[in-house]
């Protein structure tokens, strides 16, 4: 029993301390009938923004298992951005997502959701299940 509790504690603390950011922007992928939209436009934008602003790689946490058709969320660490970069980043990200939603197939492709006013904090993420930490 002690080993089980110790293992669970070690796993949770490893996840908690491996996160470098305190604030995360949320991007949600939903489905209508045939799966979620591709994440390629958003990931390409992240890479382009990193390169053009000479930033380290964004911390991206993926939450999977939100639905039967692959619904998922991305949590993107935004602490490394100053106020001006954050504004530019959110405008560009909103533009990419709006373009992707506008060009989707109406009866089969799902939606990509993003609200720049919504941020999730590190403490909130510890309450979520099915999280995968990655750098994109």
Structural features:
136 residues; alpha+beta; five-stranded antiparallel beta sheet
Give a quick rundown of the structure.
This protein is an alpha+beta fold.
Question: How would you sum up this structure, described in words?
Answer:
- The radius of gyration is 16 Å and the shape is globular.
- Helix 2 (40-53) packs antiparallel against helix 3 (83-102).
- With 136 residues, the chain is an alpha+beta fold.
- The termini are far apart.
- A five-stranded antiparallel sheet has the order 4-1-3-2-5.
- 40% of the residues lie in helices and 24% in strands.
- The model is unreliable at 13-18 (pLDDT under 50).
Which structural class matches the secondary elements? alpha+beta
Tally of separate helices: 4
Spatial shape: globular
Query: Ends: how far apart?
Result: 38 Å
Instruction: Give the H and E element order.
Output: HEHEEHEHE
Regions with pLDDT < 50 over 5+ consecutive residues?
13-18
Question: How many DSSP E strands?
Answer: 5
Query: Approximately how much beta-strand content do the residues carry?
Result: 15-25%
Rg over alpha carbons: 16 Å
The overall pLDDT, averaged over residues, is 84
* Main sheet attributes: strand count, strand direction, barrel closure: 5 strands, antiparallel
Within the largest sheet, what's the order of strands? 4-1-3-2-5
**Fraction of residues in H or I helices:** 40-55%
Secondary structure: elements and pairs:
Elements: H1 2-18, E1 23-29, H2 40-53, E2 59-63, E3 72-77, H3 83-102, E4 112-121, H4 122-125, E5 131-135
Antiparallel strand pairs: 1-3, 1-4, 2-3, 2-5
């Amino acid at each position: 029993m002690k080993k089980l509790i110790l293992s669970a504690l070690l796993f949770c603390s490893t996840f908690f301390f491996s996160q470098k950011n305190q604030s995360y922007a949320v991007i949600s992928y939903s489905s209508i009938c045939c799966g979620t939209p591709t994440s390629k436009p958003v990931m390409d934008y992240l890479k382009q923004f990193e390169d053009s602003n000479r930033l380290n790689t964004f911390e991206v946490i993926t939450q999977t298992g939100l639905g039967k058709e692959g619904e998922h969320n991305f949590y993107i660490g935004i602490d490394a951005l100053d106020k001006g970069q954050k504004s530019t980043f959110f405008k560009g990200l909103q533009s990419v997502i709006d373009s992707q939603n506008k060009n989707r197939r109406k009866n089969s492709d799902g939606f990509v959701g993003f609200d720049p006013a919504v941020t999730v904090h590190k403490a909130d993420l510890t309450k979520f299940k099915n999280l995968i930490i990655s750098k994109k």
